[in-house]
Amino acid sequence: MGAITRRQLLGAGLGAVAAGMLAGCSTPGTTSVNVEPTIPPATGKRITLTYWAWLKDLQKVADVWNAQNPDVQVEAVWIPGGNAGGYQKIYSALAAGGGPDIAQVEMRSIPEFMLVNGLVDLSRYGAADHAAKFDPTLWGQVSFDGGVYAIPQDSGPMAWYYQHPILEQIGSPPPTTWSEWRELAVEARAAGAYLDTFPIGDASVFAMYATQAGASWLRVGEDGWEIDMTDDATLEVADFWDRVVDDELVTTAYGNFTPAWFAAAADGGIAAVTGASWADALIQGVAGGEGRWRVAPMPVWPDMGYGSSYQGGSTAAVLANSRHPKEAMDFAVWMTTSPEGIDAMIEHSGIGWSPAADYIGSQRQRPSDFFSGQNYNEEVFVPASKAQNPDWVWWPITQQSFNILSDGFRRKASGQSLVESVRQAEEQITRVFRNKGLRIRKATS
To answer: Are the CB atoms for 401 and 429 separated by under 8 Å?
Structure first.
């Protein structure tokens, strides 16, 4: 991602938005974590760290650490997913002066928590010493002008999952470009299958495609935020999917991994899906699918963009009220970079792609019977994880922005184009920024 200073973040009128982000909460009762003294490590006594997350069976991961670190124990507490109530719970705890030592926070939500002084700058505890252990793009998502505001926990590099018997029936290899994908979609429809879905009610999927094409919708300049959702890359992607949907080459009747999707995939009505690394576990729920699925690289835009994109991605963030931030950081780094931590996260919690620079997990280093004996993680996802757009930056009202764009996309059914919806969303998002006291202007090339 581009270099963004905390001074820029806070100097862009962002302090005024804090109350809006804490909807339903009072302002956190903490002073800025940037001016508080570094809290020394605990010595000579046993401490217990609390970790709020929506990962399943996270305590089993913590227990591996606990067995090796009797003086620093970790207690995992399950909370709902971020926008399903988890973030509200965290914000409320911060406002009350409490909360856990560590919380699962999506990468796209880090700026929101920074703006309410909810996160510890881990650079004060030696976080930079661990940077080389992590994928550089993911480390960039949590780093701001020398500060480090979370530890990457997992991500979701993208690839193309497909049922190879259907492609063999058509007589086509996996597409390497999006133009080839469109040609294959036409042939798939003739064979009675859809090549994919396009969820018009979830704009985050469109953002995934735009990210791959090289878009960077918002960034922070010296005088505030700069917005550009009508760049060439975004409009080309929007026009592409406008034509695909208009020609009924994908279905918009249901989304991926819904009951209708699983039924269609099982009977050959869905031939493929563009999905993140974590989609493999979901695809294995397709009845009779073993040996029918394979994985190929995500199709690319030949004249622009990157080899892959990413969907999802979380962090282990140390919250401002933690009394043991150094120990919390040490646990988070162990969990996300050590072989035993990564293997435990995969086995018990089903995490997405490991953020570690040099270890993907032992379970992901061998062929898969379900995916036709293919060693797809090493063959496809390792290269995909290194082919990301490093300039994409998340912004303080990401979810609200996606809601605005999704509302526009739903009007596709009544004749409004995706291109029109993107243009309108840029205007609406700009107004929301200004209504919240944020300085924003149209970016210039």
So the answer is: yes
